[in-house]
Amino acid sequence: MKNNKFDIVEKEINNNDNNNDESNKLDNIVIGIEGLVGAGKTSICKELLNFIPNSVVLHAGDVYRAVVFKLLEIKNKMGKTEEKSSNLNLSNINIKELMKRFKINLRIENKETVVYFGDEKVDINAIQSDEISLAVSKVANIADNKDAYKVVSDIIDNLRKKYNVIFSGRDTMKIYNNLDYHFFIIADLDERVRRKLIQYNNNIDEKTLREHIKKRDNLQKQTGFYDTYDLTIIIDVTDCKDSVESAKKVLKHIKIKETI
Q1: What is the pLDDT of residue 258?
Q2: Domain containing residue 174: CATH number
Q3: Average pLDDT over residues 225-244
Q4: Is residue 172 situated within a structural domain?
Q5: What is the mean pLDDT of residues 174-203?
Q6: What secondary structure, in 3-state letters, does the chain show?
Q7: Residue 82 domain-assigned?
């Protein structure tokens, strides 16, 4: 068994799968879902669980968010002096090393991956905040992601032995080049602002949120997270009334052995 902080996912699969062979792995599919900031990819992934049999959602972005959350927590505790902040090595961030440092691990709960710091479950609302979201986009521009990408790729290979994998995150094609499907979710800026305001319970003013989304869009483009490929199917959900309708637009393009 690989010696990494995601062994819990691997153990869960091995303990529950009596036919863990290569043929099973190839029978299952991996669906990469990315999108513009606020377009609703996470909600779509959750809805797809209701339509795709024997599926799980890998929320890879939550791992990244958890790392950044811890970095900011440490920075706040240390203070903002240049001398103290330099101890964080912000100019040369290695995401995999920080995963180990913060004892980050993934567990499957209700068919979705959940992030833990050791045995402490991560507060999803805390890592999904506007502050963390903006910080994640900035960190992604300077971080060394290569080793972390390999960790996530290995997790997908393990999950695929038992499940159809709905892979939600950024750079999904570069992380896992054996995707069966790659979707990029888009919506116009006004709609994305509206949805984010609902997510944040209107605890941020609309103008500030709009500027943050624009800034994050620019950072994502610079990092290459908005790149599309020959496999990419672009889904515009601007006019969808809810996440179910958005998910059904994605489902039209997916072929699997069983359907519901």
Answers
A1: 52
A2: 3.40.50.300
A3: 97
A4: yes
A5: 96
A6: CCCCCCHHHHHHHHHHCCCCCHHHHHHCCEEEEEECCCCCHHHHHHHHCCCCCCEEEEEHHHHHHHHHHHHHHHHHHHCCCHHHHHHHCHHHCEHHHHHHHCCEEEEEECCEEEEEECCEECCHHHHCCHHHHHHHHHHHHHCECHHHHHHHHHHHHHHHCCCEEEEECCCHHHHCCCCCEEEEEECCHHHHHHHHHHHCCCCCCHHHHHHHHHHHHHHHHHHCCCCCCCCEEEEECCCCCCHHHHHHHHHCCCCCCCCC
A7: yes
Domain containing 134 equals 7-16+24-251
**Which residue would you say has higher pLDDT here, 139 or 83?**
139
> pLDDT band at 152, cuts 50/70/90?
very high
Number of folded domains that form the chain: 1
What long-range pairs does 107-112 form, CB within 8 A, spacing at least 24? 107/8, 107/9, 107/12, 108/9, 108/12, 108/56, 111/49, 111/55, 111/56, 111/57, 112/46, 112/49, 112/56, 112/57, 112/59
- Residue recorded with tokens 């521009």: 141
Q: Is residue 39 part of a domain?
A: yes
The whole-angstrom separation of Cα 155 and Cα 60 is 10
In a domain, 79, yes or no: yes
φ and ψ of 135, to 5 deg:
-65, -40
Q: Is the sign of the CA dihedral 107, 108, 110, 114 positive or negative?
A: positive
d(CA 175, CA 165): 14
